[in-house]
From TrEMBL, chain A:
The keyword Heme applies. Transmembrane segments: none annotated. It comes from Jannaschia seohaensis. SUPFAM superfamilies: Cytochrome c (SSF46626). Keywords: Heme, Iron, Metal-binding. PANTHER family: BLR7738 PROTEIN, CYTOCHROME C PEROXIDASE-RELATED. The keyword Iron applies. Residues 288-470 form the Cytochrome c domain. This is Cytochrome c domain-containing protein. It comes from the Bacteria.
From TrEMBL, chain B:
The keyword Hydrolase applies. Keywords: Hydrolase. It comes from Jannaschia seohaensis. Residues 90-255 form the AttH domain. This is Predicted secreted hydrolase. The keyword Ribonucleoprotein does not apply.
């Protein structure tokens, strides 16, 4: 059981003491070093119980009253249901969870699968980051209009509670293009509105909120947590990973008691996530060419991304920005001190301690299990296909997913896209603008990770064929 | 003028909200201008109506059996002027912006809503006795530049006292009747109503094509006719006043929001003398918190529609009284700004306290400003809900 903070005042004293050492030991507090990422002990959990909790428990406890939701969405398409879910949840889309609040109002709220599930070839894959999620719109508008069908005092109270929370975070979670995720900025914005010890919500920020424009992220696949010693691209998530996962509850959680109830099953969810395996490539593979590619992989990739086969290895190493060369904005913002107030917040909160939030000034080389499914690539999803990743000169500066219909390019290993002539600045139509991935925007750059640029087209194709086997 | 009747299809938030906004305010009080505004009482006995009472009453409705619109659809006129009795709710809202022979503004508002309490049944005996639908209608007439008002509202259980007749081309509550020509391609409608102290008869002709909702995911269907030409008369004990002008018609059916709820609306319809027509819906929380959205639908003189949102459009109180809480008292003067659009909107009717199913205010407005660099004037209707009376 997590050593839940019984004496928050004492925690504050500890933080203050540590903060007092910050000038002297600032390099250690809230930072990790470039290089190997050490493993930390995780609370044991039951994967089966974790799957049940993930799919059914209301760890995000505010949302739209069910009756109002059903007015606009009376039926759930079969493809969006997960029949193994319990009760009402079996009738809802996989990314929504139902529960009845203390006032007796049934609430429909988002769950983890909103971002952590995706489809390939029509099949829903739990743990796959959603490459098409749309966070470009102002959620306050959606929240307001969802009130159209809300009726009665209890429903209104529940709806207003959810809408108020969205008011607090909306300015910080609108991305410039579809397909990238603002989760980190969302988390910092939520912290700005909460007392770290009591978790009481404050309409006005209690600490400076993050910059309004989120730095874009590609949602990493959950199945990599089988191998990774720390969470997220900068390895900011150290220590007890279940603690960090609890941050998903921050939009709605009403206090430490509710958080403790969620924490009771959080290790099970962590165990479930860590039990997930990558989906196999669902189409034929040219075994001969893949074997050729395996040798190339061993030479070009395995030192950072690990080896596969009978004796799998994974280095668990984070690499310096100068070495990896990919867009530095995210890692720099995480480690230049501009976010330290949020790491302080974590340290003072039930979500962690002074060791929990500790990013390194670089990016981890992730395991490549199921890498075929995780396009677009790099931490910001700036490169639409593996073929483009391995041939940096061909990476499109401006591009857009082809979505009518959405289809997967088996040769290029990624979603079909079109290259555009111009970026967002020269586009007047907001609908076109928000579907344009513009790599000239801050944080959206597609440079770096030029490994493979010297490969011949044949060798590159062989390497891609091998990657399909992982 | 238009030739063969055609319809247009635009899948737009502005149009959907225009239709929904019409319903949301269509059952609000049309300001109680004449003394002792009367209410018909064909089904509710002497129930003192309030938002809570209506919510409770309608909460007992059967959910199953009503047909919820789904999938793509194509507007069919004149049929869709008539009732959709299998839908849970439907509404007709007509706003006529008129002038008398001296150029004095006059206005006529008609809002008819049907809320299904139980689906229609083929059992004729059951139809006779069971309360299966609740009808509400309101008529308001402004004359003399808006200063003189006559208004009434009525409820009915249907059963002949209110309903629709597709063959005859009529929808009605008591002797308030909206009729439409039933021939293919017909563009003509009439509206007649007799109130305690006024009679109204209007002849209307669709001057622009109807615009239909097209979003297949919406739980309702509907259309607007942004401009109809109008001629007719308003008859009071002082005599008969010939009037002419333009009108706007909203029509919706399906899963429509019932009265009440946490949102308030400011809905403005404007018909300008350059031939363009504008509908704006400003949506906000009744508790005064949170963001305010503005959705607009602008029809140019040829009837081409353009949607506008708050990215380019603003609708704000003009010279608001800073000493008064934002949602106390109905704002009388508004400023609308948008692409090549700058309008000042001023209420013509008197500001009186109202209390009805949903507290609200409907009032004719005069508009002045510029569109596309050209000075324009116009008349319109402003409907507001979600304010507290001072």
């Amino acid at each position: 059981m997590m050593p839940f903070r019984a004496l928050p005042g004492l925690a504050a004293v500890v933080v203050l003491l540590l903060t007092g050492c910050k000038d002297e030991e600032g390099a250690r507090l809230y930072r990790s070093e470039i290089g190997a990422v050490s493993a930390s002990e995780q609370r044991p959990g039951d994967p089966a119980a974790g799957e049940r909790a993930l799919l059914n428990e209301p760890y995000v406890s505010c949302g739209i009253p069910y009756d109002a939701y059903r007015r606009v969405a009376p039926e759930t398409p079969t493809a969006d249901r997960m029949p193994d879910r319990e009760g009402r949840n079996a009738e809802l889309p996989y990314a929504l969870t139902s529960h009845v609040n203390a006032d007796g109002v049934e609430i429909v709220s988002s769950n983890c699968l909103t971002c952590h599930a995706g489809r390939i070839d029509g099949e829903l894959i739990v743990g796959l980051g959603d490459a098409f999620g749309d966070f470009t719109a102002d959620p306050r508008r959606l929240a307001l209009q969802s009130g159209t069908y809300v009726r009665g005092e209890a429903e209104t109270k529940a709806w207003a509670h959810w809408a108020d929370r969205l008011e607090g975070i909306a300015p910080y979670i609108q991305t410039r293009t579809v397909g990238v995720n603002p989760a980190t900025n969302l988390t910092w914005a939520l912290m700005a509105h909460r007392d770290p010890e009591t978790l009481a919500w404050s309409e006005a920020p209690l600490i400076d909120p993050p910059p309004q424009e989120p730095l874009p992220l590609s949602v990493p696949p959950w199945w990599n947590m089988r191998k990774k010693s720390a969470m997220f691209y900068t390895t900011i998530g150290r220590g007890d990973h279940a603690h960090f996962m609890l941050l998903a509850s921050m939009l709605c959680v009403e206090g430490v008691e509710e958080l403790a109830r969620i924490d009771a099953y959080a290790p099970d969810i962590r165990a479930y996530i860590s039990s997930l395996e990558a989906p196999p490539w669902p189409w034929p593979i040219d075994a001969g060419r893949a074997a050729e590619g395996e040798a190339i992989y061993a030479d070009e990739c395995s030192a950072c991304h690990g080896t596969y086969g009978a004796e799998e290895t994974y280095p668990n190493r984070i690499y310096d920005l100068d070495e990896i060369g990919t867009d530095p904005a995210y890692a720099t913002a995480a480690t230049d001190g501009s976010r330290d107030r949020f790491y302080d917040w974590v340290a003072r909160s039930p979500y962690g301690d002074v060791h929990t939030a500790a990013p390194a000034p670089g990016y981890i080389a992730p395991p490549l299990d199921g890498v075929w499914a995780t396009a677009p690539y790099l931490h910001n999803g700036s490169v639409p296909s593996m073929a483009a990743l391995l041939a940096p000169a061909t990476r499109p500066r401006f591009w857009r997913h082809l979505t009518a219909p959405r289809s997967y390019d088996r040769d290029a290993m990624g979603w079909r896209f079109e290259t555009l002539d111009a970026g967002q600045a020269s586009e007047d139509d907001p609908e076109v603008r928000r579907t344009t991935y513009d790599t000239t925007l801050r944080g959206y750059g597609n440079g770096g990770h030029e490994y493979g640029s010297d490969l011949s087209p044949a060798h590159r194709a062989a390497l891609i064929e091998y990657l399909k086997t992982l | 003028m238009i030739g063969k009747l055609s319809t247009r299809t635009v899948g737009m938030a502005g149009l959907c909200l225009a239709v929904l906004g019409a319903l949301a305010v269509g059952v609000t009080r049309v300001i109680g201008g004449s003394e002792g505004a009367s209410g018909g009482d064909a089904g509710l006995g002497s129930v003192a109506l309030s938002v809570e009472a209506v919510e409770a009453f309608l909460a007992g409705t059967e959910e199953s059996g009503f047909v919820r619109p789904s999938g793509t659809w194509q507007l069919a006129l004149p049929e869709d002027h008539g009732g959709h009795s299998l839908s849970r709710a439907e509404t007709w809202v007509l706003a006529a912006h008129l002038e008398d022979a001296e150029g004095q503004p006059a206005s006529v508002q008609f809002a008819l809503s049907r809320f299904g309490l139980a689906p229609e049944t083929p059992d004729a005996a059951a139809v006779s006795w069971e309360l299966r639908s609740l009808y509400h209608a309101a008529v308001a007439v402004w004359q003399g530049g808006g200063a003189e008002m006559h208004a009434e509202e009525r409820f009915s259980r249907g059963a002949g006292a209110a309903g629709q007749d597709g063959e005859a081309g009529e929808v009605w509550l008591d002797d308030w009747t909206l009729s439409y020509a039933t021939e293919e391609g017909a563009r003509d409608l009439t509206f007649t109503a007799r109130l305690d102290s006024v009679r109204v008869a209007l002849e209307l002709t669709m001057a622009k094509p109807p615009e239909q909702t097209a979003d297949a995911d919406q739980p309702f269907r509907g259309f607007v006719v942004p401009r109809l030409t109008v001629s007719g008369r308003i008859e009071t004990e002082d005599g008969v006043t010939p009037v002419s002008g333009t009108a706007w018609l909203d029509r919706a059916w399906g899963e429509l929001p019932l009265p009440g709820g946490p949102l308030g609306y400011d809905r403005l319809q404007v018909q300008l003398d350059d031939g363009s027509d504008l509908s704006l819906v400003r949506t906000r929380r009744r508790d005064g918190r949170g963001v305010v959205t503005v959705d607009g639908l602008l029809f140019d003189p040829a009837g081409e529609a353009e949607t506008l949102s708050e990215d380019v459009l603003s609708m704000a109180q003009h010279n608001a009284d800073a000493t008064r809480p934002a949602l106390v008292g109905f704002p009388r003067v508004w400023r609308v700004s948008g692409p090549e659009l700058d309008l000042q909107v001023e209420a013509l009717g008197p500001d009186r306290e109202v209390s009805f199913v949903v507290g609200g205010w409907t009032v004719p407005v005069r508009v002045e400003g510029e569109r596309a660099g050209v000075p324009v004037t116009g008349l319109g209707t402003l409907q507001m809900t979600g304010y507290e009376t001072p």
